[in-house]
Design goal:
Mean pLDDT: 97
Structural class: alpha+beta
Number of helices: 2
Radius of gyration: 10 Å
Shape: globular
Strand order of the largest sheet: 1-4
Strand content: 15-25%
Helix content: 10-25%
Oligomer: single chain
Low-confidence stretches: none
Distance between the termini: 5 Å
Length: 63
């Protein structure tokens, strides 16, 4: 599994960071930074929920 962020779409609302701050952080520039692009499979449900929470669909999971 790999987390992919579309920085052009991100509005820095921070829903992902609020739900999974060990994987996502909204930087000073107001754009999400993925802290761990390839999280362990046992965190899939947790990461998937944070990805789905993005109101502008700037995040997705591959694999």
């Amino acid at each position: 599994m790999k987390i992919v962020a579309d920085h052009g779409t991100c509005e820095g609302l921070g829903m992902c960071e609020a739900m999974a701050d060990q994987f996502f952080e909204v930087g000073d520039d107001g754009v999400v930074q993925v802290l761990d692009e390839t999280p362990p499979e046992e965190d899939r449900q947790f990461v998937d929920a944070a990805v789905r929470a993005c109101p502008v669909a700037a995040l997705r999971l591959q694999g």
